[in-house]
Amino acid sequence: MESSPVDAIRVFVLLVTAASVVGVVARRIRLPYAVGLVLLGLAAGYVLPEAARGITPDLVLAVLLPGLIFEASFRTPLEPFRWAVSRVVVLAVPGVILTALVVAVVVHLGTGISLGSGLLVGAMVCATDPASVVSTFRRVAAPDRLRTLVEGESLLNDGTSLVIFVVALRIVTGGLGAGDAAIFFVTTLAISALIGGVLGFVTVQVLRTIDDHVLEATITIACAYGAAVIADGLGESGIIATAVAGLVVGTYGRRVALTAETEQALDEVWEVAAFVLAALIFLVVGAAIPLPRLLADAGPVAVGVAAVLVARLLTVYGLLGLGERVIERARRGRPSFASSVRAAAGARWSLAGPEGPSVVPLAWLHVLSFAGLRGSVTVALALALPAGLPDRAAVQTLTFGIVVVTLLVFGLLAGPFVGWALGRAPAEPGDGAPVTPGGETPATPGAAGGG
């Protein structure tokens, strides 16, 4: 029996109501909001299996994610992002590639599935969803640059993970060679960013001619989803296009087209939209994950989680932490790789004046390593696997299991861990919200994290 539009509206109202109730309860018992929503979704999917039938990759990738990603990029502070942009690129491009390869090898050796299937798992779990960690930043004195670094990585690696997924799928099905895969990856990233940049620039020029809060909010919504639709229609990455469009409107647009009153109105509109979209995403993610299958395959899932942890540690401490310190030592003319290794192991802070740390502090690396939770994009890609793909059931089980463990276990531990890590480091001057005696910080605008 087909559902009517009225049924869809009823389901939407029910989901929003459930999300609001979970939000109130989670706030009272100090449970991460995302964890509460995923738990509710898992329970709904277990008790009402038919609830998951309407959950499709298009629902997540085409309906829910573009708005959430645009909100995050639109409200990204400019100055912290300038400091973070090169680090975000390291995490979201070579870091994503490293993660996919490490997970592929470990999963292949640990579970026995083919290397190609392992590469698919690696591609799907590259996308991070650090909502629990980001929400914790509002309760501790988290520096603005650290928040931007975590949120910026989540923004961009959603897009790069989608591109790697397409590449891996074509390699597994025999439609793409290694050389062609590299060219496809680079061109897709560049063209998608160009689409988003052009559409964002055009949107800003339109906004300059208007002084109506409602109309301006409508135009930004059209920009968010238009970037995704245009890029997807051209065979490129809609998520990357949307993220870049949001950055252009949120940085260039704020300088030349938006008044202070308009900025406040748009921030409020997108903050409400992000709350609703994030709530729906975590609910549908939980409902789409088959809990009995995960419990039956706990061993392979444990191998997959271990693979993700190893890849995350190598990316954060090796590629970013050690790599930055080696470059910084070379730039200052100081000797030896060994001394750089010792500096990476023991250095805490290296400030370059008011522009922020010249290298990412060790305490921040701890937080970044803990921010590698997986979520909505990963589940959507697993649902999108072709029906005839070899090892499809095993690949889906591994992927779903990694999402559940990282979201629930690391989500629950995010608050204590982030507080411990940042408590060991002095607050950056002029950066981060003051802590009240109860341990709370004033609410600050910020993204909820991407997919």
Structure in words:
The chain is an all-alpha fold and 451 residues long. Mean pLDDT is 79; it is low at 344-354 and 424-451. It has one domain (5-423): Na+/H+ antiporter like fold (Up-down Bundle), CATH 1.20.1530. α1 (5-29) crosses α2, α3 (57-74) crosses α10 and α5 crosses α6 (115-124). It has helices at 5-29, 33-47, 57-74, 78-92, 94-111, 115-124, 131-137, 144-172, 178-207, 213-233, 238-256, 260-288, 291-296, 298-331, 337-346, 362-370, 376-383, 392-423. The longest helix has 34 residues, at 298-331. It is built from 18 helices and no strands.
Gist of the model:
With about 450 residues, this protein is mainly alpha-helical. The chain has 18 helices and no strands.
Entry keywords:
451 residues; mainly alpha; Na+/H+ antiporter like fold; 18 helices; disordered C terminus
At CATH level 3, the topology is: Na+/H+ antiporter like fold
Distance from N terminus to C terminus (CA atoms, Å) equals 31 Å
CATH architecture assignment name: Up-down Bundle
Unreliable spans = 344-354, 424-451
Radius of gyration over C-alpha positions, nearest whole angstrom: 21 Å
Number of separate structural domains: 1
Q: How does the overall form come out from the CA principal axes?
A: globular
| CATH class placement | Mainly Alpha
The number of helical runs is: 18
Strand fraction: under 5%
Which structural class is indicated by helix and strand composition? mainly alpha
The helix-strand sequence is HHHHHHHHHHHHHHHHHH
